[in-house]
Amino acid sequence: MTDTQRVNIGKQTPAAYKALIALSTEVEEATAAAGLDPLLVELLKIRTSQINGCTFCLRMHTRDALQKGENPDRIAVLPGWEETGYFSATDRAALRLTEAITLVPDGHVSDEDYQAAAAVLTADQVSAVSWLATVMNAFNRVAITSRYPVGS
Fold first, then answer.
1. How confident is the model over 36-50, as pLDDT tens digits?
2. Where do runs of H (alpha helix) occur along the chain?
3. Which pLDDT does position 107 carry in this prediction?
4. Which of 17, 66, 78, 83 is the most exposed place for a label (fewest CB within 10 A)?
């Protein structure tokens, strides 16, 4: 971490940030309409933020998940979700797709990753998870670029 002053791009260009908030609201509604568990939605936000190293979003969504009743053990093992019995087939499919979208520079969203998700998730769920990952990646980049403060 440096002491370099950063422009808070959300405050500097509020119309763009408000549009991102509006998109996020639409995506939240799509996740609910697709029947995704709100706890899974928080886990997907956490996982995206873990991959991107966004401490601001990690803190916020971990707190949100705990307030909604998420099991702390599931949060603790989230980076190793493939190796645990904590996650359902739906959780695994959504996590796999979210990771593939977040890690797009590492090889795009492969047919294998997409098909694995589509074999478990409905078309509405694939769309909702994809939009959620897209929005979270955008929020992570806003917070990281602006160096949103976390703790002391």
1. 999 999 999 999 999
2. 9-12, 14-33, 38-52, 55-67, 72-76, 89-102, 111-118, 123-146
3. 85
4. 83
The Cβ of residue 84 has, within 10 Å, a number of other Cβ atoms equal to 13
Between CA 29 and CA 82 the distance in angstroms is 28
In whole numbers, what is the pLDDT of the chain averaged over residues?
95
- Candidates 67, 51, 79; CA nearest to 144 is 51
pTM for the whole structure: 0.94
| Helix/strand/coil for 63 | helix
The helix/strand/coil state of 131 is helix
Handedness of CA 24, 26, 29, 31 (dihedral sign): negative
Q: Would you state the torsion angle of the CA atoms of residues 9, 13, 16, 22, taken in this order, to the nearest 10 degrees? A: 80
Q: Give the three-state DSSP class for 133.
A: helix
